[in-house]
Specification:
With about 170 residues, this protein is an alpha+beta fold. Helices cover about 50% and strands about 15% of the residues. The chain is built from 7 helices and 3 strands. The chain has a 3-stranded antiparallel β-sheet with strand order 1-3-2. The longest helix is centred in the C-terminal third of the chain and has 18 residues. It starts with 19 loop residues before the first strand and ends with a helix.
Length: about 170
Amino acid sequence: IEPFAKNQRFTVRLTPLRVGAIGYRTVAVGHPDYPALELARELLYNEQGSGLIDALVDQGKLLIALPFPLDHAEDGLELIFYAPRLLFQPFGKAEKLIAGAYDRVAAGDFDEAEMDALRDNLLRQQDREFETNEDRALAMAEAFTKGDGWAAALRDRERLRTLTKAELVEV
């Protein structure tokens, strides 16, 4: 796979609002670092709205931020669609705020207790996927199509369960 060209930009006019997108290449499903990526995503954005990127919207620093993770068998992609504040915020400043949230996770600038709670929530979500035979079969099928099979999915779960803050930051 070709490496990304850094800071590649283009401009198109498709919406009445000013919107932008930032993309990051991520590891594939089944990669040993994938469980760390899942937990890092939870620190950045989650269903509870308590992530670092969620906070940027809650604090009024961005009008909106919509994460769109794409996990594939070869490489993944992390897209963040965002809208700067309506009138005076330049795109560069909005991008720096989003990049700053990723930098905070990379530097370990987050509460370990919050990380543990988010990890427990991810594990509970996985447990719910296994409650019925139909959901378990779908999870197994997804494990085979996106990764190295069911054994690898169970290894990823165990890796997530035992992941420490230091290991997350290292990845």
